[in-house]
Structure formats: C-alpha cells, structure tokens
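Batch manifest, entry 17 of 40.
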Amino acid sequence: MQLPKGKTNCITDVEGVKVGHVTLYEKINEQKTVCTGVTAILPHDSNLFYKKIRAASSVINGYGKTAGLVQVDELGLLESPIMLTNTFSVGAVWQGTLQYMLDTNPEIGNTTSSLNVVVGECNDSYLNSVRLQSVKPEHAIQAIKNASDKPVEEGAVGAGKGTVCFEYKGGIGTASREVEEYTIGCLVLSNFGKREDALFADFEKIKMETPDGSIMMIIATDAPLYDRQLKRLAKRCTAGLGRTGSIIGHGSGDIAIAFSTAETYEHQAESPVESVMFLRDDQPVMNKLFQAVVETTEEAVINSLRNAETTEGRKGRVVEKAPLE
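Output type: structure tokens
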C-alpha cells in the first residue's frame, strides 16, 4: 500500500528545504546550443556553515564527477547547499558556491576552518554543447539566491535542461511522502535509461546514440536520524531506481545524498560532548521511511519525464516529451 503523499508532493514539503534553478538555453548556430543549468538545494534557512546538518551519501555506481562526498561520508555532516549541474561545470559551480559561502561567512579560511562544498552532476552532452562551458560561477550564486520553499519547478529546468531519461526528455523531478509525523522528500536529476528498459510505460522503441547516463537523487527528511541511518536511507534509492527499470549501467553515475533537518550541529561549541537524538533502528517507522524513499525516488523519476518538454539541442537533435498522462 502506497504511503500518503506530502502537501505538494515536493521535496520542499520538508520544512525549511528550498530549491532554486538557473536555466541556460541559447541556439548559437546549427551545431552549437547552450542547453544546461544549475539547481541548488538548501536544507534550511539558517547559516549552513554554522548550523550543519547530518548527511550521508551512497554511490550506487561511481561513474561520476561529484565534489565533496568524501568529507560528507567521513564526518556525516553537510555544511553547504547541494548543487547540481552538468559534468564539465562541477568546477564552476563549486567556485560560485564557495564564493557565496565566503561572502556570507567572512570567518571561513580566516579565523575558522575550510569549507566542504557539495556538487553533483549529470552528462547533458547529447543536447548541450558542453565544450562551451557555459555555466559560470555567478550562475551557482544565482541558483542559491533563487531558492524557494514553493512547489519545485520540474522537467527541463535548471541542471535538468539538457538531460535525457529513457530516451525522452528528462530533468528535475520530485515527490514526497508522509510517514507518521515525519516527511520524506526526494529530488532527482534524471539522465539515464533506454526506452525498452522502462517498467512504468510501454514506450515506442527507437535508436538513440546516448551514453549510459546518470542520476543524482537527493533525499530530505525531518525525521531524527544521524549519518549512519541516513546512509541506510540513501541506499534505498537503489530500489526506487530499479522500479523504474534502470539497470544501473557501466557508464552511469548513480549517486544518492540523504540529509535530516531534525537538528543542527553547531560549528563551535563549548562542551566537548555532543548529544544526539535519533530513532531506534528497530522501530517500525524505519521501514516506513525506507518505503518512502523507494516510492519518492520512483515517482520523482517519472515526474521528471511527465513535466519535461520536447527540447532541441546541439546538432539539431530533438528529444521528445515522454507520452505520459
């Protein structure tokens, strides 16, 4: 039995979470098209550097070029927005996010420690002229400033402007579920799959020379969980991805990041001892949280297709909107 959906069926149903996009699209000539962007996920309204949150990641298949996940998994903390973009723009988005954090935290690199910026990516080179490196640091700053807790714009927007999913137009998708007094939200950047693999629809088969592709999956919750438990949630994205028909191909970067907004970890504290409140692993609600991750991951992928639009990219390539109700 499916769990009840959140108020707007978006990751922003988790209180405090905001999402912002910057979408870049320009037909330069018959061969070159800018068709890409940036998406920012902000876990809460306060200063992320001084009020870090518990987080973890799961690398399902590591054909990806992310930044920041080593420290997230080592310390179990997130201290920057989660940024999404195309493969060749990880550096520019990292630089822009760093600049935003430096501007809002003059202590970083001066009187206190360094900063761990988290950036994920998908390869949008089928439609986007990635060699142009059109995404600039200022686009990352703009995406952060655009972030809102309103229902998330989905489809061919932000980092999803140029991505392809099941050989139809993919992009940004989101979904949420209510689990007792808690909420689980998922946002994906979908860029994977062949039409014959899809389990949720009987798509017309075609031949497209697209790479294996990738997907970034971001899980947010207000349930009190710490990093080991959040990694358990992130791993369940695999089941949701499998429900769509993904075979998690050799050249696919399938990566999940999960975070909890239930409490913050102060950057500085007088006491050397930290107390953490978290759900017991053996409580029945944990299985429902796992179920919510599976359901929202699957639905977010489908929503990324349902809400996209037919898009023309470089070399006159056209990727059609999926025939979904």
